[in-house]
Amino acid sequence: MKPELTTQFTGLEFVNPFVLASAPPTESKRKILKAFEAGWGGVVTKTIGLHPVENVAGPKTIFQRTSEQKPYVSRNKRPDTVSHSSWNWELISDQPLEQWLPDLEEIKTTYPDRMLIGSIMAGAGNEEEMENWRKLARACVDAGCDALELNMSCPHMDRKDMGAHIANDEDIIRSILGALKGAVDVPIWVKLTPSTSTLVDAAGAAYDAGAASISLCNTFPSLPLMDPETFKFEVEVDGLVTSGGLGGLAILHQALQRVSDISRAYPDKAISGIGGIKGFREAFNFIAHGAGNLQVCTAAMEEKGSGGIGVNLINELTTDLADYLERKGYSSIEEFRGIARERIVEHSQVRRKSDAYNGGYAKSA
Ligand SMILES: Cc1cc2nc3c(=O)[nH]c(=O)nc-3n(C[C@H](O)[C@H](O)[C@H](O)COP(=O)(O)O)c2cc1C
Asked: InterPro entries, alphabetically (predicted)?
């Protein structure tokens, strides 16, 4: 019997658990249709908002590589390099909501069996912004979205009431989810920023306020590198740069740890794993730590000749997952989801070479 790639997640059926994350691969109807044709189980649209968007007058994303010969990280083309990360300072979608709505409708009608998740973002702190969340949510759901993902994690907003600036503030998280209660009847995923020390509490607040899942991680707030000879940043406009987001392989381990933290604190809750997935091994690790759904961005964008949507990648991911399930005799990812949870312990619970070590020991005086 062929193993089952179909996955239930937040009450939705995915033909496979691999989803394109909210980013350039999902920025237009054309790309999303191509992604579904290629085999992705779902997409989270590029984040849709209500305020005008004007991106920087220069490249919005760079892909950084490193090599064994000269192992520095740079976007500069060198032979024999491998991918290290993406860095971007791209804002949310510059396509207005009104233009998105017929597109969403057409996408859902063309691919009814694929999951269409609308990523939305508004501000916080007053009723007008709460109404903005409701307006975006209702419009996307009416146009056919199966779920919503609330972007509370964009790392490059100037507005203090948006994106990562919300800084996982539990009151704000509760207020936004509260505002959406009763407004729509679809699962709501919440994408939090990985860059606070209050992440687990924030996830708890979101689940408590009705979130069906947490999506983690968005890119990590970060700066691009400066060249020691030219004093130019790897990406800049008129010599200036600002906080952007690091994605790709470089964030894999940090993303896993954060998914693990949330998954161990709330083992019965859903979590969608994102950050550095390039193939089955990375996806496996997120599932082992409890993720029931996998999102991919940088690796899809990097795939040459795919129009930035990872045509070979989705083929490889599904083939490798199917092979793995078959080889291990598993009927679905549920049979190994979360297997790493119990093996992540306090430092003091790990065996020592002798009894002498006392540093950080939970029971030490
Ligand atoms: C160019 C670019 C644009 C992005 N835009 C958004 C966005 O609009 N909304 C959002 O929630 N995440 C956005 N992201 C973050 C991705 O969805 C994803 O969380 C992140 O890149 C980590 O995944 P990766 O390591 O597979 O790239 C963007 C990422 C990149 C590289």
From this structure: Aldolase_TIM, Dihydroorotate_DH_cat
